[in-house]
C-alpha cells in the first residue's frame, strides 16, 4: 500500500504526512529531502546547479541515503547526517533548479521506487509520475500568504519576503507539481494540521 501526499511548497506536506503515517503505523517518505541533499552537495562542491552531468558524477561518488521513519526523515551522506542543513534559505533558492534536471529526477525516483512498501510518500509528483498506481492520492494547497505566515513561525524572516520566495518557487515547480487526476485536492487554508490529517484519515477509512 502506498499513499501519496503532494502539494505546493510549505503547504504542510511533511507534518501532514508524518501525522498520517503515524496513525497508519507506517513510515513516510520525504522526496523533497533528496532534491535538497543533491542541492546542498552541489553548492558545497561549488558546482553550477544547472550542470546535470557534474551533479550526477558528484552524487555517484558521494551516495546519499534517505532514512524514512514515521516521525521524520533523516538523510545521510556516508557517516555525515545532512538533515538539519537541508532547509536553509540557500538550499531553498537552488533546489528548484536542481529538481528541474531530468537526470536528477531519475536519480531520486530510482531511490524512491526501491523502498519497501507500505509507506506514505510526500512531494510534488508522487501521485503522477513516481507512484501512479498508489492506492490513495492527495494534493495540498493554500494561498501563498497563508503558507508564508505559517513558515514565518519557523524562520527568522518576514512574511512578505517568504511569500515572494514561495511564489518564485511555485512558478519554478509548476512543471513537476500538478495534482494527479485521481487525487483529492485539499485546501489547507481553513484547516489546522490535525484537520488536514483527519480529512485524509477519514478518506482512507
Ligand atoms: O517538499 P520540499 O519543499 O522539501 O521540496 C523541495 C523542492 O524539491 C521543491 O521546491 C521542488 O523543487 C523539489 N521537489 C520536486 N519533486 C518532488 C519533491 C520535491 O521537484 N517530488
From TrEMBL:
EC code(s) of this entry: 2.7.4.25
UniProt GO MF annotations: kinase activity
Family: Belongs to the cytidylate kinase family. Type 1 subfamily.
Species in which this protein is naturally found: Deinococcus depolymerans
Ranges that cross the membrane: none
The entry's keywords: ATP-binding, Kinase, Nucleotide-binding, Transferase
Keyword ATP-binding: yes
Protein name listed in UniProt: (d)CMP kinase
Residues annotated as domain Cytidylate kinase: 3-203
Keyword Magnesium annotated: no
Cited InterPro entries: Cytidylate_kin, Cytidylate_kinase_dom, P-loop_NTPase
Residues forming coiled coils: none
Record field: catalytic activity: CMP + ATP = CDP + ADP; dCMP + ATP = dCDP + ADP
Chain's gene name: cmk
Pfam family, one: Cytidylate_kin
